[in-house]
Amino acid sequence: MYNVILYYVLIITVKTLITSNKGYIYRGMKKLNTDPVKIDIPPVGVSILAEIPAFLSGVEVFSGVSYCQALLMSGQGKEFIVKPESIHVCQWVPIVLGFKSPENDFERSITPHLKPPTAGVYLASIDLFDNPITPDVVIIKTNPYNFSLIFQFLGKEFFIDPAHYNRDATAMSFYHGNPARGVNGLMLKWFNRFLDSMNRFSWWQKFTEFLFTSTTISRIFDKFITRYLANMSMCRNSTVIPLQTGKVNISNFCAGGIAWGKNSASQMTAGFPYHIYRKIAHLLEYPGKNEHAGQTT
């Protein structure tokens, strides 16, 4: 009878640990986890170009709403060069990617950013990259659980320290046991879900494109999202910050990332410096992996 009671106490204790502290399970992942991390969208490589090399002269020049949109299409098998004239709506990207110098208070408030002039940004699914070009950063979009697996596999030393950034620039506090709470947590959850739900309406897409061609509207909205939401999730958080720090950054999606990049509010984005991406490439399983010549993984 004593053994039976002890057995049930043990089962209840294990279940409690599993449900209340998933990190307890993950701590041994470096030794125990050999299963692939399955993601729905191929990772996209990003190369920042000081000049456009001749061997990329035949690559299509992107023309569209935003960098988020270019990344969306690159994850679907396209390859692009994003140039200063490529972005027709988003007011943040030209400064963030170094396509132009800041000219007003709003643009000067956008930090960090690349130092201009950037001639172009080459985007392609990671398996389309080939010598002599390699990515500077690789962007992965997936759910928070998968990023937890990657975080535990690599170790926190490969990720930025969230103490040095505002919450609009990173979601790394979540992986340090300090998720957004209060108004910030509610806004991240419900506002992003609202944007996600509106993506099915073509008129909404046209409305947001029209609205944010205005620098004044963008400036007003920037103050709101900087305080309550993620901001510049794909261009700054997933490209510039990993490039400049040499470390991984995980971010919630910004409004543009959801409205123009068609990303789900239930997922997140992360930028991996290429040398760190190579450490996890073997773990990833995604559509089309290894089907293309010139793969870097």
Walk me through the structure:
- It is a single chain.
- The chain is α+β, with helices and mostly antiparallel strands and about 300 residues long.
- The chain has one domain.
- About 40% of the residues lie in helices and about 10% in strands.
- The chain has 14 helices and 8 strands.
- The strands form 2 sheets. Strands 3-4-2-5-7-6 form a 6-stranded antiparallel beta sheet. A two-stranded parallel sheet has the order 1-8.
- The longest helix has 19 residues, at about 1-20.
- It is globular, with a radius of gyration of 20 Å.
- It starts with a helix and ends in a 12-residue tail after the last strand.
- Mean pLDDT is about 85; it is low at about 1-30 and about 290-295.
Run of helices and strands: HHHEEHEHHEEHHHHHHEHEHE
* Share of residues in helices: 40-55%
C-alpha Rg (nearest Å): 20 Å
Would you count the extended β strands for me? 8
**Unreliable stretches covering 5 or more consecutive residues:** 1-32, 292-297
How do the strands of the widest beta sheet line up side by side?
3-4-2-5-7-6
Number of helices: 14
Strand content: 5-15%
Q: How far apart are the termini?
A: 56 Å
How many separate domains make up the residues?
1
Largest sheet: 6 strands, antiparallel
What is the overall shape? globular
> Can you give the mean pLDDT?
85
Structural class, please? Answer: alpha+beta
